[in-house]
User: Which sequence fits this backbone?
């Protein structure tokens, strides 16, 4: 009685395995024995037909590996990533490409899941000859992908993920352009100490990776700076009602409130703060929701966003070269303003161009060394300067913006400021 | 003697499964097969409680997560050898499952289902909040179990777990435990009345199930090298364990393996072909399977085989009746 | 004492949210009572109600509250259709299969919404949601108050319908004893279809009420769907009014409990209550006879 199904199953498995082997052969173009190679042939090897696996053929485009979340819960951000890549790709190729060859992206979708990011990284590392990989969006997906890339010794550029441990696990192959979560905290506290000097601070954060890994250092930094943290409230994101929690924070009378929230909660929080007539001297967000384009519009907090500050990586009015043109082009093509995610990927491709040109080859080790030696000045990318420390972290200069008249205006540090910060924040009743 | 003959095909299958990495080197496909084995192990674990004992638990992520976090916490906070961490996870699964069992087995039918769901959710929320131990949402990076680039050792590890899980199921089906569990599934009151210690056997099934799930959870943590509550303690994990077993054929030994194979390959295929729509199709498939194949793939196959055999028996005038298949 | 000062605000917040919870719970209880099905797609129904409301507002400019007059019947019909085509087929199947079918249904609904509307979050702004009413030290959002009032009204209307109308009696009879009802000549099939339709309509109405004060995205229903089970259990499985009261109780417990465990764990409160009630008082806090 059991034999029938067992036989069926064995046959099924065998069939699947055969299909798998067969599928594998057709999957990787030209390379019949996939192995964990550490790099393609050198660039002086011109078009040896049996070695079509290497990217040495100078008429062929250079393929760059990209991992992002095209589908799944983070699809919106994957889309933002792709838009930045697309604009940069066009610009770079129109200007002659890299090393005389056009650039081409091999994009893998991680479907917003870490396990897919791992197999995406593995696929790019072993089944293609990309000299490096850029990706992904969430820290949960980026971290395992970065570890995988490290295993295969493929240089890995991180454009967006903020978890500190991505550059802390000791890899020589991971290079991050954006700031880690702790930097958001650093910037916010520094701003507060410089411009506001609050006695007391309340920290409200969502209990996610980003929220927690930003709020915790913020608390420590604040206390070290002599600010008393009177409330440290983690909340479950996606709740409809924050009033009980907010009224508790209000009763502690903080001078300033620091938020680590994404857009929706940021919107509801500001709305309900107005309802409660809660008036600290300063509202400051650590990026995320408090920096998105929608936040200041009707879809977001609208008028309630006015006067809020936010530590941010990039704004459309930033002074780095090309940012404004990028913004205009973006709006023309896609009908919406770019968020920093698109600026990051745009800059990443320009970084790639610089790196490959300095390396002079597509050899992964050479590329890695060139990455480590990167020193791009602020006007080389729309995302500002790029220089990696020994852990692979770029010291990206962070900014603080304030919503003034419904627009994000850079107000700090002074060398990048477009206007002065408006302080103290008018109370809700004063605002009418 | 027929028992010995019966064991040959499954043993052969096990050997085939174990030998795969010897001739399949492509890491992409190895990864896919690893996932198949993970869900085979999990589905089989669930099957013991859900398929054989008939207790629809939707809270098994608790055990999966326990295994994952035990490994992660002991390896990072205490610096333990990961193998010890895995072992500890399996050991801790016993008291956890007994505890959960003591609460939920008092509940019947849908109450039981919801109870397991609720408890698993509470565990997830606790893991999120108990930051000093679990790092909350920030998660924990788990050290590699095996050094080196090859996926083969990982494959072998999970293959062994999966084979053990299926093997235990195979054994249960052929021994007293299995009969008792089936009796409990079919009619718990009657089983009680004829003297079967229903609570004891239900708990036994849950303990075995939990230990297997915990082992798999620990493996998964090491394979992914990073865990957080939403990855290993979430409701979708519990759901998928049940779905894999049910679509493949619950209450059958190889049902979960079939289900895992189908679902992982379908998921890969759909993700590549249909992009956004793949989850939608997954849902439609699930509904279709419930509506048209209520015993799962293997269950329906078995039913048909039985019916054919019964028809043949009737033709030859055999006096054996046909046992009614439980749905 | 600080905590005491917050009590009124927490109480009021909990109560107002409880009105909407009540509708969600009532809908689920109705389906369970009449059909004995644990409907895991209830949260998805809420989501459908929210998107329907959203479409009405953005495309036809209809106020979300007025829109219930359209949203509810639309979802009612959808529910009946779903029951007839899909749920009905597993009426005699095992609980497991029924539950899993509703899980699949939920996946289909959620991902269809994702395809149609993308995962983008959407909001509906109304003037009510901008207005604050302050009494004593307590701040209340006008939209919340309206939503609460409408929820109460609908629940009362439902109760009246179930108690007084002929069909309501047929519903209750079927809930009590399917076979006896059949023997009495009740068209059980129609009753079940209607009950499911009503359940979906109620979830949809709750969604409509939630839209002005919250935001929508395809998976918005998940959290509420799970909580609905707690409400049903509090009320005694199958008791519609019990579930409604359970909804209010749950919202209050979350709101007040936050003072002690913080916002993060407020959802855990519900689940723990759920398990405790199942263990210690399975007939629920409010359940006695079925409503």
Assistant:
């Amino acid at each position: 009685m059991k034999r029938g199904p067992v036989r069926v199953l064995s046959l099924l498995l065998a069939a699947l395995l055969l299909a798998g082997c067969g599928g594998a052969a057709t999957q990787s173009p030209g390379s019949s024995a996939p192995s964990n190679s550490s790099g393609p042939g050198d660039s002086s090897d011109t078009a040896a037909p049996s070695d079509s696996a290497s990217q040495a053929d100078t008429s062929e485009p250079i393929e760059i590996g990209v991992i992002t979340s095209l589908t799944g819960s983070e699809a919106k951000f994957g889309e933002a990533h792709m838009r930045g890549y697309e604009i940069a790709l066009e610009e770079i190729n129109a200007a002659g490409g890299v090393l005389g060859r056009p650039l081409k992206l091999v994009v893998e979708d991680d479907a917003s899941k870490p396990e897919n990011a791992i197999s995406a990284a593995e696929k790019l590392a072993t089944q293609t000859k990309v000299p490096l990989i850029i990706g992904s969006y969430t820290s949960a997906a980026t971290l395992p992908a970065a570890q995988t890339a490290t295993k295969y010794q493929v240089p890995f550029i991180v454009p967006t993920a903020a978890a500190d441990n991505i550059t802390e696990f000791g890899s020589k192959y991971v290079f991050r352009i954006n700031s880690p979560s702790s930097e958001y905290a650093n910037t916010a506290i520094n701003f507060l100490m410089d411009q506001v000097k609050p006695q007391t601070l309340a920290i409200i954060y969502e209990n996610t990776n980003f929220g927690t890994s930003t709020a915790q250092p913020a608390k420590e930094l604040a206390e070290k700076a002599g600010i008393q943290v009177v409330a440290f409230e983690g909340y479950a994101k996606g709740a409809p009602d924050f009033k009980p929690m907010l009224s508790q924070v209000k009763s502690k009378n903080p001078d300033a409130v620091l938020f680590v929230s994404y857009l929706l909660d940021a919107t509801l929080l500001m709305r309900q703060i107005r309802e409660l007539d809660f008036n600290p001297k300063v509202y400051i967000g650590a990026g995320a929701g408090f920096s998105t384009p929608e936040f200041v519009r009707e879809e977001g907090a609208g008028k309630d966003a006015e006067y809020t500050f936010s530590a941010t990586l990039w704004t459309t009015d930033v002074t780095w070269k090309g940012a404004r043109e990028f913004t205009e082009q973006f709006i023309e093509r896609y009908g919406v303003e770019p968020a920093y995610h698109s600026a990051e990927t745009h800059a990443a491709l320009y970084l790639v161009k610089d790196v490959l040109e300095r390396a002079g080859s597509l050899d992964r080790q050479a590329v890695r060394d060139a990455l480590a030696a990167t020193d791009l000045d602020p006007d080389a990318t729309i995302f500002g300067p790029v220089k990696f420390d020994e852990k692979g972290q770029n010291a990206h200069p962070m900014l603080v913006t304030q919503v003034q008249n419904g627009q994000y205006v850079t107000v700090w540090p002074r060398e990048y400021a477009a206007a002065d910060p408006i302080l103290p924040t008018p109370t809700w009743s004063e605002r009418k | 003697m027929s028992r010995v003959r019966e064991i040959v095909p499954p043993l052969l299958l096990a050997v085939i499964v174990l030998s795969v990495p010897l001739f399949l080197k492509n890491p992409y496909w190895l990864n896919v097969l690893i996932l198949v084995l993970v869900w085979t192990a999990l589905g089989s674990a669930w099957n013991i409680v859900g398929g054989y004992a008939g207790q629809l638990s939707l809270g098994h992520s608790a055990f999966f997560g326990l295994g994952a976090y035990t490994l992660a916490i002991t390896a990072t906070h205490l610096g333990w050898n990961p193998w010890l961490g895995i072992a500890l996870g399996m050991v801790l699964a016993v008291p956890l499952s007994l505890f959960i069992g003591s609460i939920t087995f008092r509940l019947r039918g849908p109450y039981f289902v919801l109870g397991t769901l609720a408890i698993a959710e509470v565990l997830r929320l606790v893991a999120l909040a108990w930051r000093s131990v679990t790092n909350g949402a920030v998660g924990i990076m788990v050290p590699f179990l095996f050094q080196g680039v090859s996926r083969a050792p990982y494959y072998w590890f999970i293959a062994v777990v999966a084979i053990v899980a299926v093997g235990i199921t195979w054994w249960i089906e052929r021994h007293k435990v299995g009969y008792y569990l089936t009796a409990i599934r079919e009619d718990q009151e009657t089983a009680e009345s004829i003297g079967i210690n229903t609570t004891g056997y239900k708990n036994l099934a849950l303990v075995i199930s939990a230990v297997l799930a915990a082992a798999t959870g620990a493996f998964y943590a090491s394979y992914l090298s990073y865990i957080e509550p939403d990855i290993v303690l979430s409701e979708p994990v519990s759901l998928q364990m049940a779905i894999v077993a049910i679509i493949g054929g619950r209450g059958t030994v190889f049902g979960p393996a079939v289900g895992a194979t189908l679902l992982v390959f379908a998921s890969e295929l759909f993700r590549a072909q249909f992009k956004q729509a793949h989850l939608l199709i997954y849902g439609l498939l699930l509904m279709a399977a419930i509506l048209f194949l209520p015993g799962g793939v293997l269950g329906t196959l078995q039913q048909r085989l039985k019916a054919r055999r019964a028809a043949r028996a009737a033709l030859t005038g055999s006096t054996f009746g046909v046992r009614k298949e439980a749905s | 004492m600080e905590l005491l000062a917050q009590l009124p605000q927490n109480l009021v917040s909990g109560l107002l949210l409880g009105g909407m919870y009540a509708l969600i719970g009532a809908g689920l209880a109705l389906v369970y009572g009449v059909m004995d099905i644990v409907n895991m797609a209830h949260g998805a129904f809420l989501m459908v109600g929210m998107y329907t409301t959203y479409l009405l507002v953005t495309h036809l400019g209809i106020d979300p509250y007025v829109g219930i007059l359209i949203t509810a019947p639309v979802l009612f019909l959808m529910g009946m259709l779903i029951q007839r085509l899909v749920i009905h087929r597993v009426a005699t199947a095992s609980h497991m299969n029924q539950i899993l079918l509703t899980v699949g249904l939920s996946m289909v609904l959620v991902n269809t919404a994702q395809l149609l509307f993308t995962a983008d979050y959407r909001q509906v702004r109304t003037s009510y949601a901008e207005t604050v009413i302050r009494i004593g030290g307590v701040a209340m959002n006008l939209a919340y108050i309206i939503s609460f009032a409408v929820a109460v009204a609908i629940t009362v209307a439902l109760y009246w319908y179930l108690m007084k109308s002929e069909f309501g009696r047929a519903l209750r009879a079927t809930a009590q004893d399917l076979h006896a009802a059949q023997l009495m000549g009740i068209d059980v099939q129609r009753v079940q279809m209607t009950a499911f339709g009503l359940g979906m309509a109620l979830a949809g109405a709750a969604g409509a009420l939630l839209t002005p004060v919250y935001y929508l995205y395809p998976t918005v229903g998940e959290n509420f769907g799970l909580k609905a089970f707690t409400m049903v259990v509090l009320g005694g499985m199958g008791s519609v009014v019990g579930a409604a009261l359970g909804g209010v109780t749950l919202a209050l417990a979350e709101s007040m409990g936050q003072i002690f465990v913080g916002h993060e764990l407020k959802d855990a409160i519900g689940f723990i209550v759920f398990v405790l009630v199942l263990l210690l008082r399975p007939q629920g806090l409010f359940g006695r006879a079925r409503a």
Observations:
- Chain B has 15 helices and two strands.
- Chain B touches chain C through 40 residues (CB under 8 Å).
